[in-house]
Amino acid sequence: xxxxxxxxxxxxxxxxxxxxxxxxxxxxxxxxxxxxxxxxxxxxxxxxxxxxxxxxxxxxxxxxxxxxxxxxxxxxxxxxxxxxxxxxxxxxxxxxxxxxxxxxxxxxxxxxxxxxxxxxxxxxxxxxxxxxxxxxxxxxxxxxxxxxxxxxxxxxxxxxxxxxxxxxxxxxxxxxxxxxxxxxxxxxxxxxxxxxxxxxxxxxxxxxxxxxxxxxxxxxxxxxxxxxxxxxxxxxxxxxxxxxxxxxxxxxxxxxxxxxxxxxxxxxxxxxxxxxxxxxxxxxxxxxxxxxxxxxxxxxxxxxxxxxxxxxxxxxxxxxxxxxxxxxxxxxxxxxxxxxxxxxxxxxxxxxxxxxxxxxxxxxxxxxxxxxxxxxx
Length: 377
Hints:
The chain is α/β, with parallel strands linked by helices. The chain has helices spanning 2-6, 11-24, 35-42, 69-79, 88-94, 140-146, 157-176, 180-191, 208-220, 232-244, 265-268, 280-287, 292-298, 331-341, 361-376; strands at residues 49-50, 53-58, 83-87, 195-200, 225-229, 248-252, 274-279, 302-307, 309-310, 321-322, 346-349.
């Protein structure tokens, strides 16, 4: 592909480089020569900041594995990740949130309005694509059918009553939970050498009190912001509460840039607390435009980016996730621009390509970490 022909980092060169790095551990100390690589390979705490660029991961990348804070800490350590965008469902479930009754409903029905973090363990395979529908909205099955999936059955009156009770109980649980619980979660990550820069609560359809809870909880865990999917309604609702808490409301996009007229300007004008989680992979895959055009224009309002490899919109198959180094996404140019300009933008791996049976998501994130390191060091 064109990207590979022009890139300074081919898949073959990368694999050769990582093999050489691994061989360093077999050499006497006086012969090693690259202290940065040796440090990364030999210290117990992960360190995924290379050349001044913080590489991390969104914990959605491990959606195929058991959830919970203790497990996420383990995956980060095994993958060599020292900074994360944390999916909040793992935290709330870990801290004892009420159980989501839809987990016991075959084929689901409508998801409750306030389910923990939008991504409870029973639904870890769902992408972090926004909020559960508000009460009174169309059933989840309707949206699924519109997208080409099979329609889920409507809930029975008993199931609807169970969901209503869950929403009430969950709100009460959230508003009564002491922030010291989240400080304890922060300590678990900090003790393992892992920082949390964003928490993906996706709270825009929650009550104002619960949105405030999300920002306070994220701050207690050491994060600088709460992330959500971008929409005018979400931005206007979350921005004032972010300002109140001295935090950022950080918004993620999918393929909206492929729609004529879409840009960040109207959202950024709402508040200086509004920042962007620029998904460079979705941008490139849907538009074919170099992501650096957005980074250069909005770098001071981009808090973090999601990085992945993809085919472009005119390739067969179009806009498709690829193993890093096998797609057309200009990963190297994106990372090197951030390094060159010294922009304080968090760069998070979002693992979405197919993981082969002989591997697993933790190993693949580690491979992506090594790929980024090879570019940046």
